[in-house]
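Why this split exists: single-chain examples teach little about how molecules sit against one another. For that reason, every record in the complexes split bundles all components of an assembly together and asks for one structure covering all of them. Below is a record exactly as it appears in the raw files.
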Amino acid sequence: MTRSQGSRVPQGSQTSQSSQEVQDSQNSQDSQNSQGSRDRILARIRAAVAGAPEVPVTRSYRHRVPPPAGGTPGEAVELFAERVADYRAVVHVVESARAAEVISGALARRGARRVVVPGGLPEEWARAVGAHPGGEAVPDDPPLSAAELDALDGVVTGCAAGIAETGTIVLDAGPGQGRRALTLVPDYHLCLVRAGQIVPGVPEAIAALDPLRPLTWISGPSATSDIELDRVEGVHGPRTLEVVILR
Amino acid sequence: MSGVFLGMPAFPENAAAAVQDSQLRFNLRRATRTIRGKRAAVAGELPDWAALRDAGKQIKDHTLRNLDRYLLQLEEAVTRAGGRVHWAADAAEANRIVAGLVEATGETSVVKVKSMATQEIGLNEALAERGITAYETDLAELIVQLGDDWPSHILVPAIHRNRSEIREIFRERMGEWGRPAPEGLTDDPRALAEAARLHLRERFLASEVAISGANFMIAETGTLVVLESEGNGRMCLTLPRTLISVVGIEKLLPTWRDLEVFLQLLPRSSTGERMNPYTSTWTGAAEGQEFHLVLLDNGRTAVLADEVGRQALRCIRCSACLNVCPVYERAGGHAYGSVYPGPIGAILTPQLRRSGTVASRDRLPPSATRDLDASLPYASSLCGACFEVCPVAIDIPEVLVHLRAQAPHPRAERLGMRAAGWVFDRPVRLARAQRLGGRLRRFLPRRLPGPLSAWTDTRDIPDIPAESFRDWWGRTGGGTR
């Protein structure tokens, strides 16, 4: 990487041998200090809260979200579709049997030729990815570099859960989802959600997910409101999110 | 801004200058009104908002009460999951630890996710002194960094800039930091966001080290949580080989389940959305990354020791209090002289600075910082809108009044208060003073003389009635005679 503003960096970027040694001793000193700081911080906390009363936690909020989100599966699907679309994502609700057809149709419309497919994606979906003219399903095996991912036209994945009330899709890097970079670097993400994966609200999703896996909660395409609080879809993450809900 | 601001840039002086800036006032009014409406709509959508708010407050208070225990649990869980935990008592130590970790990778640049904690400790400046360039990647932080500017809002730090100012900054400065702005860049927010995407793309793909903060840490599992919108956070958290997260010790939640409360409270209070576009959670060294967690005190334990003031540590940095504050809307974020502006800043900054350091725009000398901090608790009309909107029910007016009582008061004010106390102490003294006032009321000037004129410059002196209520009651028996 080139550095283009050397003036902002007072010291040279090359570290001489002797300053490297100084640095090393500084670092080991820091790890000792950190130990001392650990004890000091913990002692300060204990002194600060000594004698303070315990605080009970009452959870009188909704543990299960009621209808429509928590209603019949049909109601939940409908609300999920509506809320995902609110974020200006493209949404389809189709019968499961039509999954392959919808995948290849969406990719053809988008003009997405080389599309990455994560390991564990259902065979039928993966075949559909390369089915349109010029289409090619690119496996992430061996793992693609970030630059290679950047050169691809999109990614097709499943998901771990959908949340009806907030229109959120959660990925947990499990089968058919791939590592986190796969759904981040390509500019187009086509995500398939089975109706049975849709939970009513945030509490149900938290209960269903495994915190030890890296999770990515996605609510619409990448967006920013940093300029005059005007919402703009599409900054660094995929600028187009297309969601296929399978009934 | 560089150089030392001489004199006393306390809040009133800063604010007086800011309210003269009509562009700033226009930008702020527009932005805060938009977001107020959005927040109210999505918070109103949840029938159990009040119950979520109660639970949020209680979970935070419970965590703070047992912070030592939960921090140790967190440390164990993060370590078990392959991460390394470092403890920093103050800003200088945190900066040293981070710089050392970056140097150990052999890299001389890092990408950053927007983080209040790293702004608080002045990390970018500290890294620059060690020859490391920190690239901000959040769009608003990029605008602030390129413009050599200072953040003015917790959520949208460049809220004081409008689109044409941003276009100018991009055109003039992007080239110095990397890929220049495209030819013919317009001031359409879409075009500006696209310019930022192009400017940062290669940087993301090539960076080896990233620095982040975190919105929450889960003690039970060792999980860290980052909420964002643009995907710059995901880029930084996912692509680089080494990830260093600097997080204040109060960001802890005991259990994974607690997130069910905060993932409902935070997005709706902050951006006014049902959910922010991206939330990332990871536990320890995810997907083969090297992960370091730097736990930051920097004055927090001193805040914790204050029975009234400690509620400020519940703050989840949503910025809802800024958006409803009539003082913030007029004075803007820079007037608060700290990375934490608005009502929460007025109670957090002076408290943190008791034993920690909080970066300020003007790099003030200690005496001026003391003056500023003494003035911050007065940067409020005590209207209470901030308390009402706060998702963790921080009683900001209560803390403001508490801090006002602690701030140094001038001798004349103390004498005046003592005199008033003497009068109010006995009914007979009060009655005599009221009768005296009634008799002398014709001589009351419209404006007070000397230093007291500061008060009457902007207020009318209330009329003194000819007769006090109690005298009238005694004379007429409440109007029956």
